[in-house]
Design a protein that fits this description.
Elements: H1 47-51, H2 59-87
Length: 89
């Protein structure tokens, strides 16, 4: 049995053990997104294709889905009270 501390095993420091490999692979270069090709077989136009909400503008899609429920909550709070005030005269 080989002991890790005595260095007498087949995989001594600096040997051909894959765990001792020190070769580094070059890291891939990130290229920023410039344009997007849309498949138009199901939809001819969408909000994303009309406004080109891709690449760096992708966050705008999440903003649209966040604004919808916020508008619904605002509408319920305001127009519910407004309809009670105007409708119960």
């Amino acid at each position: 049995m080989y002991q890790a501390s005595d260095g007498s095993g087949p995989f001594e420091p600096g040997s051909d053990c894959p765990l001792n490999a020190t070769t580094s692979t070059p890291s891939p270069v990130k290229v920023p997104c410039q344009e997007w090709s849309f498949a138009k077989d199901k939809f001819k136009r969408t909000a994303v294709t009309d406004n080109n909400w891709v690449c760096d503008d992708e966050y705008k899609i999440a903003n649209v889905f966040f604004a919808g429920p916020c508008g619904a909550v605002f509408g319920v709070l305001v127009f519910n009270n407004l309809s009670d005030i105007i409708g119960r005269r």
